[in-house]
């Protein structure tokens, strides 16, 4: 390899082309398994190996600026330095684990021209980013982010489905995963990240994504030969507001550059999360790479369970009032939340005019509802349309704060160009000043945003429960891909808890009487398996009241945990996750359409005896997926629980010390 490296440099010199002095450096992960080779000649490339086996071939990195200059192309390395970090991160808001191990090796290449390339390698992946120290602002024409893969791996690719009324960079970031060899992905197909790459045999999985996305467009991915390459939405020059129920801004004209930004800054990390089926769902690499909190006091950021009425269309029964967007209905939701241990209820679309947050639905007495919710110790949360929230931001947030609203949702961004990325930071900062948490729907993945803005506690960017209203897309197979791909990039708002459950043959998308594919316990297990510090229960409260023991068990599951570990997993097939809150353990398991037995060793428990409460698929769940069993037994760390999961099934076990 060294022969060809210097031969190439010699040929450039013979041909009379100016070339920088060649540079090569290898850095390794703390455990020594992962290595990254960075090479600088006329271009800059990185390659990744795991235990000596090549995972990513030499791949170019560069940034093209206006005026004909390109970073990391034709420039010489002025200085290089390596540092090792053995540290820990204490999260500002504990959601997944109380202490995050932060061990890595970092290579910094200072180039002539006042910029640097930073490369980090962790036990569970690698990342690189540019950092500039230039006096003037930068206009960035494009960025080269290449991932040259080995052989012809299988890729799990959420392809953008182009809208008829917009360009290809408009998407809600909610798609199924196409699973095919890289060579069979059409080169015009555009996918949003994360994308998973699965090689053959024992080769680790690779999830390609980004972190610390700020004042810069998000990264899409497209095939380019045997590589994936980053694609970035150009900056908008003109927009129009759509008509219809949920008006949104559509870009009608874009510039010939992707960003205009400060000359003194760090750019987003390009990240390869590398691991096994067991390690990918529990990683927090994206969080570790993100910028620390910009909110000085986060004591008011409180994870907690929430209800939502939109998916079931408020189709209540056994109530003495006409259900709908009105005061009586939301008081009913407040009573439900108090009865079963939920922290807040969400008033979804319709509580106000979509385009005016001060034009409140005449059937809704908000001051009366606010007073009632406060008397019951339940918080209110409100849905907003993003274009309306942006226009009415400060007065709306003041009104929410006066109402005691501590959590809002904003929806229908459906873009991640630089302008829209700036919207996220602007709104999160404003919400933080008013001590309001926010969830983004119609949103790109969080990319570590929840570390920088802890009040932006969760977000959508996932094909979740709402698709049961109009499609058959949320299958158990889809549910078993999300933790290995989308969830790697941060928390996701799936909105589980549907109580009308069906087999594959029984399922029908019916608005107003929404069912889910798979068993009741499959829905329940999502509250443990999926990362979301404000999990939203999307089931019908009228159904829930008929099964108080089940709902009390669901209500006992915390929204955030002190420790998280994956006990067993297979991509797309099954997943078992254990989480600890205080001294209590919650173990959740999911399976695809294949029913399977599972043995659950309890070796993670300490000494003593414990009470285990199990919610498992019932004996008839393969025919009637609403069937479940609640049982209690005494267990010890030496015990193994034998469980049987129905097709599309799941389980939750709660373990408390006696």
From TrEMBL:
<feature type="domain" description="Glycosyl-hydrolase 97 C-terminal oligomerisation">
    <location>
        <begin position="561"/>
        <end position="655"/>
    </location>
</feature>
<dbReference type="InterPro" id="IPR029486">
    <property type="entry name" value="GH97_N"/>
</dbReference>
<dbReference type="InterPro" id="IPR019563">
    <property type="entry name" value="GH97_catalytic"/>
</dbReference>
<keyword id="KW-0378">Hydrolase</keyword>
<dbReference type="InterPro" id="IPR029483">
    <property type="entry name" value="GH97_C"/>
</dbReference>
<comment type="subunit">
    <text>Monomer.</text>
</comment>
<dbReference type="InterPro" id="IPR017853">
    <property type="entry name" value="GH"/>
</dbReference>
<dbReference type="InterPro" id="IPR052720">
    <property type="entry name" value="Glycosyl_hydrolase_97"/>
</dbReference>
<dbReference type="GO" id="GO:0030246">
    <property type="term" value="F:carbohydrate binding"/>
</dbReference>
<dbReference type="Pfam" id="PF14509">
    <property type="entry name" value="GH97_C"/>
</dbReference>
<keyword id="KW-0326">Glycosidase</keyword>
<dbReference type="InterPro" id="IPR014718">
    <property type="entry name" value="GH-type_carb-bd"/>
</dbReference>
<dbReference type="InterPro" id="IPR013780">
    <property type="entry name" value="Glyco_hydro_b"/>
</dbReference>
<dbReference type="GO" id="GO:0016798">
    <property type="term" value="F:hydrolase activity, acting on glycosyl bonds"/>
</dbReference>
<dbReference type="InterPro" id="IPR013785">
    <property type="entry name" value="Aldolase_TIM"/>
</dbReference>
<feature type="domain" description="Glycosyl-hydrolase 97 catalytic">
    <location>
        <begin position="311"/>
        <end position="462"/>
    </location>
</feature>
<protein>
    <submittedName>
        <fullName>Glycoside hydrolase family 97 protein</fullName>
    </submittedName>
</protein>
<dbReference type="Pfam" id="PF14508">
    <property type="entry name" value="GH97_N"/>
</dbReference>
<keyword id="KW-0106">Calcium</keyword>
<feature type="domain" description="Glycosyl-hydrolase 97 N-terminal">
    <location>
        <begin position="27"/>
        <end position="292"/>
    </location>
</feature>
<dbReference type="Pfam" id="PF10566">
    <property type="entry name" value="Glyco_hydro_97"/>
</dbReference>
């Amino acid at each position: 390899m060294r022969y060809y490296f210097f031969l190439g440099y010699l040929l450039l010199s013979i041909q009379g082309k100016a070339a920088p002095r060649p540079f090569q450096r290898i850095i390794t992960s703390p455990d020594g398994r992962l290595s990254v080779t960075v090479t600088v000649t006329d271009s800059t490339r990185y390659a990744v190996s795991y235990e000596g086996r090549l995972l990513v071939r030499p791949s170019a990195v560069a940034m093209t600026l206006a005026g004909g200059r390109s970073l990391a192309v034709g420039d010489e390395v002025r200085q290089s330095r390596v540092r090792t970090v053995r540290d820990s991160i204490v999260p500002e808001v504990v959601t997944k684990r109380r202490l995050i191990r932060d061990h890595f090796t970092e290579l910094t290449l200072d180039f002539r021209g006042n910029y640097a390339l930073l490369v980090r390698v962790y036990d569970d992946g690698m990342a690189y980013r540019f950092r500039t120290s230039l006096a003037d602002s930068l206009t960035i024409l494009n960025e080269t982010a290449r991932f040259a893969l080995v052989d012809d791996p299988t890729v799990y690719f959420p392809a953008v489905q182009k809208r008829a009324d917009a360009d290809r960079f408009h998407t809600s970031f909610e798609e199924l995963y196409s699973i095919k060899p890289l060579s069979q992905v059409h080169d015009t197909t555009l996918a949003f990240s994360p994308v998973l790459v699965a090689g053959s045999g024992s080769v680790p999985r690779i999830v390609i994504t980004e972190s610390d996305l700020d004042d810069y467009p998000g990264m899409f991915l497209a095939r380019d030969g045997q590589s994936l390459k980053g694609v970035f939405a150009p900056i908008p020059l003109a927009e129009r507001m759509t008509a219809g129920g949920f008006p949104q801004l559509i870009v009608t004209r874009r510039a010939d550059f992707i960003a205009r930004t400060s000359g003194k800054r760090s750019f987003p990390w390009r990240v390869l999360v590398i691991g096994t089926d067991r390690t990918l769902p529990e990683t927090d690499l994206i969080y570790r790479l993100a910028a620390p909190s910009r909110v000085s006091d986060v004591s008011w950021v409180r994870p907690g369970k929430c209800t939502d009425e939109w998916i079931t269309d408020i189709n209540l029964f056994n109530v003495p009032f006409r259900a709908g967007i009105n005061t009586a209905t939301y008081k009913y939701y407040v009573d439900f939340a108090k009865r079963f241990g939920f922290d807040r209820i969400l008033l979804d679309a319709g509580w106000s005019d979509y385009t005016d947050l001060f034009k409140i639905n005449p059937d809704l007495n908000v001051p009366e509802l606010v007073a009632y919710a406060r008397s019951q110790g339940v918080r209110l949360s409100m849905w907003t349309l993003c274009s309306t929230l942006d226009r009415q931001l400060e007065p709306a947030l003041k009104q929410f704060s006066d109402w005691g609203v501590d959590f809002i949702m904003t929806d229908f961004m459906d873009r991640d160009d630089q302008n829209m990325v700036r919207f996220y930071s602007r709104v999160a900062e404003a919400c933080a000043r008013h001590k309001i948490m926010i969830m983004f729907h119609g949103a790109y993945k969080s990319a570590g945003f929840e570390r920088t803005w802890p009040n932006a506690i969760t977000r959508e960017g996932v094909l979740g429960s709402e698709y049961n209203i109009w499609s058959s897309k949320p299958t158990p197979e889809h549910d078993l891909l999300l933790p290995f791909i989308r969830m790697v990039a941060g928390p996701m708002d799936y909105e589980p808890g549907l109580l009308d459950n069906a087999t594959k043959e029984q399922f029908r998308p019916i608005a107003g009487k929404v069912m889910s594919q798979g068993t009741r316990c499959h829905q329940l297990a999502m509250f443990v398996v999926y990362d979301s510090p404000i999990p939203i229960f999307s089931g019908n409260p009228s159904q829930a009241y008929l099964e108080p023991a089940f709902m009390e068990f669901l209500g006992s599951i915390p929204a955030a945990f002190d420790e998280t570990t994956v006990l067993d997993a297979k991509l797309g097939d099954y997943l078992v996750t254990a989480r600890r809150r205080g001294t209590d353990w919650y173990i959740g398991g999911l399976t695809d359409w294949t029913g399977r037995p599972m043995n659950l060793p309890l070796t993670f428990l300490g000494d003593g005896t414990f009470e285990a409460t199990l919610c498992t698929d019932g004996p008839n769940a393969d025919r009637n997926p609403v069937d479940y069993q609640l049982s209690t037994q005494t267990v010890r760390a030496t015990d193994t629980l034998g469980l049987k999961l129905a097709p599309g099934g799941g389980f939750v076990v709660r373990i408390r010390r006696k």
